[in-house]
Each structure stands twice: as structure tokens, then as C-alpha cells.
Amino acid sequence: MHFEYLIEGGNFSKAGTASSLFKKVLKQLNVDPILIKRTVVALYEAEVNIVAHAYNGVIKIDLDTERIYINLTDEGPGIPDIELAMQKGYSTASPEVREMGFGAGMGLPNIQSNADNLRIRSEVGKGTTVEIEFFLKN
Amino acid sequence: MKVSELVEKLGLKVFSGKEGLDREIEGGYTSDLLSDVMGHADAGQLWITLQTHKNVMAIASLKDLSAIILVKDFEPETDCIAQSEEEGIAILGTNEEAFEISGKIYNLLNQ
Question: Is residue B6 classed as helix, strand or coil in its secondary structure?
Fold first, then answer.
């Protein structure tokens, strides 16, 4: 099964909508509740990253009996130093975004601790692609 | 303990999401950082915070939290109230600070 969600950069009133829609799909398909929780945390954080940092983005999800594969590709400023961005507590979020309680430098670590695989590629001035993978069977 | 019992025992204000007063409380989490709650709160917990915007409800729904308590007389924003009604998750309020209300709830849940 294939799902696609368009994400608008800067629009916090819609942040989490894609995650919420995909959570409903996983529930309807009776996916293991623990896997749903892990997927939702990682997907939400990645979705919010697009809203907080990029101009726009697309989330593409492929789901079969083996795995959940999530590809989030955005047009945005990109990440100059991915290793630094992965560090807990590091954030480049604006003061406005931080006031809302986002931008504490916990998003990417949250994705990493929940996903089976995480891959980030980025080109400064163009955008970022985040790939997140979960396996349905151990 | 049900959310409605806690409302009664602590005299909490109910802003919205009355449908959610029937939810069972499995514990609590006190934080104003959204990714902290996203990463560490568990299903069924109450969330004690001063954040009042709509994204709070998105997290409460994604994490299946039992209710949100806004501290220090903070009030939820209009679109946050609307989503609370839609999701059936209550937004409650108190004039107390996070430390005080968290302590009271901790004691009530561990009696």
C-alpha cells in the first residue's frame, strides 16, 4: 500500500495531520500497538521538522507485510552538519517555534530511538530527505 | 481513577472535551517541551503543561493521553478547544503551578 501526504512549511496549525491520518490506517490494519506507537513518534517528529524548517515537503509511505518505509522529502534550507543535528539538545529552530515547546533538540533523537533504520541526506540550499524504516517482524 | 473523579477531587476547570471525562488515568507527565512528551509520555497519562496551542491536542491524540491540565490559569486557544471536542480528550485547568498540581495528582494516584 502506498500513501502520500503534502506538508506545508510554517503551517503549525496542520502539524501532525499526516501522522494522525497514518496512525488511523495502522490501527485499521491491526498493526501491533507497540509498533504503531514507535511509528507515530518518529513520523510526527519528522513531519514537524518539515513544518518548522522547510518550505514544503512530501511524505511517501510504503507499507506491506514486511515493513513500513517512510520517505520525507522537503524543499528547504537543508542541514549543513547532520551529525551535529542528531545530537540531543542541538536545534536551529526560531525563537517563535521554541516558545511553542518545539525545537528542544529532541526530534531527531526521538526518531532514531524509535526507528529500525534512519537515513538522512541533505543538500544545503535545496532540501532534505529523511528515510525511516520499521520492520513488522523481528 | 477516571478523569471526572480527578476533576471533582481537585476542583479542576473543564474547558472542553467533556466526552473525554470518562477516560481512565494511568499516570501523569509534566512537561512544556512537545518532543519530550512525544518521546516519553505513555498512553493513558495526564499531561500537565502551560502550552495552550493546538499542537498540544495533536500530541495528546497521537499518544492516546487521558487529558491535558493547563496550569496557572492558562487558557486553551480557540482551535485547541475545537480539536479537543473533536478528539474527545478533555482540557482541564487549574490556578496552581505545575509542581503543586503534579504533586497532588501523584498522591491521589498512588493512594
Answer: helix
Return averaged pLDDT per consecutive 10 residues of chain B, 111 residues in all. Answer: 98 98 98 96 97 97 97 98 97 98 97 85
Q: Which of B35, B70, B89 to mutate to test the interface with A (most CBs of A within 10 A)?
A: B35
3-state DSSP helix/strand/coil % of chain B, to nearest 5: 45, 20, 35
Q: Note whether A12 contacts B53, CB cutoff 8 Å.
A: yes
Backbone angles phi, psi at A112, to 5 degrees: -60, -40
Contact A100 B53 (CB under 8 A): yes
Give the CATH number, domain containing residue B50: 3.40.1390.20
Indicate yes or no: CB of A107 within 8 angstroms of CB of B53: no
User: Which is the CATH superfamily of the domain at A2-135?
Assistant: Histidine kinase-like ATPase, C-terminal domain (3.30.565.10)
User: What sign has the CA pseudo-torsion B54, B59, B60, B62?
Assistant: positive
| The total number of structural domains that make up chain B | 1
Exposure letters A42-65 (e unless 16+ CB within 10 A, then b): bbbbbbbbbbbbbebbebebebee
The Cα B45–Cα B51 span in angstroms is 17
- Interface confidence (ipTM) of the complex: 0.91
Q: How far is the alpha carbon of A36 from chain B, nearest alpha carbon, in Å?
A: 10
**Of A37, A104, A113, the residue nearest B45 (C-alpha):** A37
Range of the domain at B56: 3-109
